[in-house]
Amino acid sequence: MSFLSEHNILIFLLQLTVLLLAARTVGELFRKLKQPALVGEILVGIIFGPTIFGRFLPGIEAFFFPADPIQHSMLETISWLGVFFLLLTTGFEVNITAAWKQRRSALSIGIIGVVIPMVLGIGLAFLLPDKYIVDPGRKLIFAMFLGTAVAISAMAVIARVLHDLDILKSDIGLTIISAVTVNDVLGWVAFTIVLGLATQQPHPGTKVSA
């Protein structure tokens, strides 16, 4: 059994320091360019992740982000707490009465935002060669899975962008947040149904091969 050590805590504090300083610095740079700070923060994640550091500086990437389940769990916990507090503060700033007035537009946009990406995702899945699917005989399940996955929006990201642009409390901001809420509810319900259909099959779950 693995236990938390002083080394784990040291690496964790180092991770937080480097990530927060880099994200804050690049985020402010993008803010001065009249762009959402979130864009810069995502860019920092790409740089420190396997895309840049993992490919060109694997030693540094392995030092800052070692393949240790305890280390991974610590950083993942902080990440989820950040998402939770972001959505919590977004809820504090949303005027429910004003958002309710936008319910028809939000409902229409939310439904369209699920249906169109889902149809496109399913169509794309059927265009993929069978070599990218572990079990080509279950291509329909794979197509439904892909279509549902691309239809689900990232509420935390959208809320942060609206906050950075200072339009969260505006009519368009409230409409977007309400529509994203509808999108998430419908999307996750559909996703659950697809997973249920996949587990009912006698074969292993459909996966995309590398």
Nutshell version of this structure?
The protein is mainly alpha-helical. The protein is 75% helix and 0% strand.
What labels would you give this structure?
single chain; 210 residues; mainly alpha; 2 domains; 10 helices
Task: List the topology elements.
Blueprint: H1 6-32, H2 37-48, H3 53-56, H4 58-64, H5 69-93, H6 96-101, H7 103-127, H8 139-151, H9 155-164, H10 171-199
Helix pairs in contact: 1-2, 1-5, 5-9, 7-8, 7-10, 8-10, 9-10
Distance between the termini: 32 Å
Topology as a string of helices (H) and strands (E): HHHHHHHHHH
Mean pLDDT rating: 83
What share of the residues does DSSP label as strand, in percent?
A: under 5%
Label the structural class.
Answer: mainly alpha
Q: Measured on Cα atoms, how large is the radius of gyration?
A: 21 Å
Q: What characterizes the major β-sheet?
A: none
- Domains, number: 2
| Structural shape | globular
Percentage of helical residues?
over 70%
The number of E-state strands comes to: 0
Low confidence ranges? none
